[in-house]
Fold:
Amino acid sequence: MKQYNLIFLRNDKMLLSRKQFSDWREIQDEYEEYMASLDFESLKDIEEYIKMDYKLTSKKVKYEVNKLTNSSNDTIEIEI
Structure:
């Protein structure tokens, strides 16, 4: 089961969410600026994806992903 979503918006924002969506259309309905999304099974998978795709350090990626862990919100903005 996919537990996390990385949501890309047209306004250049990237969101990380633990909210359960049935499919990408549900995400699109929630975010007017929706462009695309990827789903992941774990935060570790997200960290690996961001490190590879955006060439960031482990420390920076961990910091951004931990924003969700430390938040009471189901969705947070990450800065890449």
Notes: The chain has a mean pLDDT of 95. Residues 4-78 form one domain.
